[in-house]
UniProtKB/TrEMBL annotation, chain A:
GO terms (BP aspect): proteasomal protein catabolic process
Pfam family, one: Proteasome
Location of the protein in the cell: Cytoplasm; Nucleus
Protein name: Proteasome subunit beta
PANTHER family assigned to the protein according to its UniProt record, in alphabetical order: METALLOPROTEASE TLDD, PROTEASOME SUBUNIT BETA TYPE-1
Organism: Paramecium octaurelia
From TrEMBL, chain B:
Source species taxonomy: Eukaryota, Sar, Alveolata, Ciliophora, Intramacronucleata
UniProt keyword Electron transport, yes or no: no
Subunit structure: Component of the proteasome complex.
Protein name: Proteasome subunit beta
Any one GO BP annotation for this protein: proteolysis involved in protein catabolic process
Domain of life: Eukaryota
Family stated for the protein in its record: Belongs to the peptidase T1B family.
Localisation per UniProt entry: Cytoplasm; Nucleus
Keywords tagged on the record: Cytoplasm, Nucleus, Proteasome, Zymogen
Pfam families associated with the record: Proteasome
Length: 194, 275
């Protein structure tokens, strides 16, 4: 039931998530941050049931750091996306089964180019400019396609995300009141709640 | 159970299995080598329907406020429609600075919280400093992730104090670990949330917080058949924890609260006329 959605602009990437954690009919928490910070210029929004989201996120984060210590530098976005995809793919026919979570990996490389990748629990990987995970797809893809244009500015991007949040709050059956939005630019990551 | 090899004392020893192999990737923690499998698979006492599959008969709650953390629990244990005990201790005293609450399978909670206590003490002896609440709860999460499909049933809260303050975590048998300010777990949790959400403020005084905890548990025990017995209240502060109330009978609370409203508590508020 998590909503994760994002878009890539001219020099930034935004990933937004809802903050609620639900357990049968109860909303246990409303302020859970589902967007993981991999390093100063990469974020990974993960959607999935509690434990899988948490444990796969930890796995990605720690292995990302391990590679940095082994090789001396952080991977760029393309390398990271492919690495995360390979972690998903290795798990598919393993004893414990696939990692039951999907994600949106976004970030800005050191030369300033932004990228957004859509990752699936079966190991699908696609570089996109706008997208969502989960039920949010049904409500937001039309809106994102309609509002997107190449080389968006940061302010335009935030406006589009606010429209997406308003749409989810209007039409989605599940009440999602608090959203956490993270924006990556060449200067770093900004985060705020709406 | 735990490998006490004296040559490892005093070392920051985090890898125990793969030391000799080259570390290529970090893997998910594997479950500790204790044989624990249910004989007949997970039992389904209540909650065949996923939507109402609450963690079994209990109400436990905890919230963070300016004086620390307050935990309040009921004390009823039921086996189907049979009340096996009205005096269960659902707050487990892990050590002087950590408390765990019990919801779901009593054996699971007691065993794994005792295992956690063991781990905390071993860490303290090896490293010279106490395990933080975040680390202790993460250790428990790792175990529960390892036993994910084995039929464990636990919905516990870990609350404690460390050098960074007082922290409250919710951990369940799916392996979910959440840090938060207010949690209530168990079949009566929805009723307790109603009272808690209405009166909770961060700047409650200790007396107000204790009163809130007692009231929330009372309301849950009044409406939920699987909760009842007595209310036990614990307070966690920077010096550890204190047991504020060891057992207030909820039946006494019922009449006390009714009297405060000018009612008798006999349930006849609607004054139904039969003829």
């Amino acid at each position: 039931m998590d909503s994760i959605f994002g878009l890539q602009g001219g020099d930034f990437v935004i990933v937004a998530c809802d903050g609620s954690i639900a357990h049968s009919i109860l909303k246990i928490k409303e302020t859970e941050d589902k967007i993981l910070k991999l390093d100063d210029h990469k974020i990974f929004g993960i959607s999935g049931e509690g434990a899988d989201r948490n444990s796969f996120g930890e796995l990605v984060h720690k292995n990302h750091c391990l590679i940095r210590y082994k090789t001396g530098s952080y991977m760029n976005l393309q390398e990271t996306a492919h690495f995360v995809r390979s972690m998903y793919a290795q798990a598919i026919r393993s004893r414990d089964g696939p990692h039951q979570c999907n994600g949106l990996l976004g970030g800005v490389d050191s030369d300033g180019t932004p990228s957004l990748y859509w990752l699936d629990y079966l190991g699908s990987l696609q570089k996109i400019t706008r997208g969502a995970q989960g039920y949010a797809n049904y409500f937001l893809l039309g809106l994102l396609d309609n509002q997107y244009k190449p080389n968006l500015t940061k302010e335009e991007g935030i406006e589009i995300i606010k429209k997406c949040i308003k749409e989810l709050q209007t039409r989605f059956l599940i009440a999602q009141n608090k959203f956490i939005v993270k924006i990556v630019t060449k200067q770093g990551i900004e985060a705020f709640t709406i | 159970m735990i490998d006490f090899d004296p040559s490892t004392f005093g070392l920051a020893h985090t890898y125990q299995k793969e030391d000799k192999d080259e570390i290529n990737t970090l893997a998910l923690p594997s479950a500790p080598q204790v044989i624990y499998k249910t004989l007949n698979g997970p039992t389904q006492i209540s909650g065949g329907n996923k939507l109402n599959n609450f963690k079994h008969g209990t109400t436990t709650l905890g919230f963070v406020f300016k004086e620390g953390i307050l935990l309040a629990v009921d004390s009823r244990a039921s086996m189907g429609s049979f009340l096996s005990s009205e005096q269960v201790r659902k707050v487990i005293e892990i050590n002087e600075y950590l408390l765990g609450t019990m919801a779901g399978g009593a054996a699971d909670c007691q065993y794994w919280l005792a295992y956690l206590a063991n781990h905390c003490r071993t860490y303290e002896l090896k490293n010279g400093s106490k395990l933080s609440v975040a680390a202790a709860s993460k250790f428990l999460q790792g175990i529960l992730i390892g036993y994910r499909n084995s039929g464990l049933s636990m919905g516990c809260m870990i609350a404690g104090t460390d050098t960074t303050g007082q922290h409250l975590y919710y951990i369940d048998n799916d392996g979910m670990r959440l840090k938060g300010d207010i949690f209530s777990v168990g079949s009566g949790s929805t009723y307790a949330y109603g009272v808690l959400d209405n009166h909770y403020r961060y700047d409650l005084s200790l007396d107000e917080a204790v009163e809130l905890g007692i009231r929330a548990i009372y309301h849950a025990t009044h409406r939920d058949t699987a909760s009842g017995g007595v209310v036990r209240v614990y307070h966690i502060h920077q010096d550890g924890w204190t047991k504020v109330h060891d057992g207030i009978d909820v039946v006494d609370l019922h009449y006390r609260f009714a009297q405060q409203k000018g009612l008798v508590g006999d349930g006849d508020e609607a004054k139904q006329r039969l003829f």
